[in-house]
Amino acid sequence: MDVRRYEMWCAVWGFEVLPKQSIGESVLAELLERASTDGVAPRVGVVVEREGAVLLLERAEHVAGRRRPLSLPGTIVRTGESLASAVARAVAEETGLTVVDIRRHLGSFDYLSSAGKPVRREHFAVEVAGVEPIRLTNYARYRWVPLDGDLPVTSSVRGILEAYQG
User: How high does pLDDT run on average in the chain?
Assistant: First the structure.
């Protein structure tokens, strides 16, 4: 059964299929518990690689003459949602790709949301079923940027990508 038919079958029967978790379920649960203890809203960021290049997303809006940093796929973690579910959902909703394995945790950084609330973004390296086709929903464009090139990202995301390479 191909991946798309399997996903449709799961949706019809009303259950969720989580990706394999090479990282270990206990690691994911501990990260979520730590965010709760620290009083920060959990979010996830995801590194998808293809032949030495990482998938970065570009928003449509920009300020004239100013280059806006690109983003990794990511999302908020919904109340009661596991990190594995959030990772799979982020990639599926933002790119149309299917996560088949969460391989490892790459690190996190804390920041204030646009509403001024404390947020912790946990980052993960994943394996996807295939890297095409990409179907964007919240972004205007995507780029595969070589990891050994100039990464047009924030310093926080650059640190995550360095951890990914290390």
Answer: 88
